[in-house]
Amino acid sequence: MEPVRTCVGCRTRAPRASLLRVVAVGSELVLDERGSMSGRGAWVHATRECVENAIRRRAFVRALRVSGPLETQTFEKRLNSYGNQVNGSK
Questions:
Q1: Residue 27 in contact with residue 70, Cβ under 8 Å?
Q2: Fewer CB within 10 Å, N or C, the chain?
Q3: Other beta carbons less than 10 A from residue 31's beta carbon
């Protein structure tokens, strides 16, 4: 049985393999490509819609339990270069 996680952007449950893990390093949002970085993680679909929803609703801040805003520009740039999946398909 495959582990199931909840996307912080759309709040739907999905298999862990179909979501990206994100962690906070200091005040910066970082994509955990291997899924093995230490610390608390948040899960999000690799779609622009889910990422924008999560940022707009401050879902990453709540899920990662950090105080203050997170710098997301580097994460968004990295996600845009992640692949075609970011362009809107789940």
A1: yes
A2: N
A3: 18
In the numeric block, the tokens 């912080």 are attached to 8
Distance CA 15, CA 3 (A): 6
Q: Which of 72, 71, 12 is CA-nearest to residue 43?
A: 12
Could you give the CA distance from residue 27 to residue 6 in angstroms, rounded to a whole number?
Answer: 23
Place of tokens 């075609």: 84
Cβ count within 10 A of residue 17: 9
pTM of this prediction exceeds 0.90: no
- Rounded Cα distance between 88 and 85, Å, is 6
Q: Write the pLDDT tens digit of every residue in 14-41.
A: 999 999 999 999 999 999 988 889 999 9
Amino acid found at 65: R
* CA-only gyration radius of the chain, Å: 12
